[in-house]
Amino acid sequence: MKNRAEDIEKRERDQERWQQTLDAIESATQGEVVDASEVHDWLKSWGTDKEKDAPRSPRFRQRLI
Prior knowledge:
Layout: H1 2-29, H2 36-45, H3 58-64
């Protein structure tokens, strides 16, 4: 019985990951991408006193204005 419950949970996680992948592909298709150098700068700032906010795509920033 436990194995069946674990199988169901795994299947649900897999389905959620797949939906996240499809959503990410759609976002990229719509131009919602971030330059790799911005991501690298953000990651380098982790754990420092000057930690940066996660980078946003230019399209996302326009929607905030």
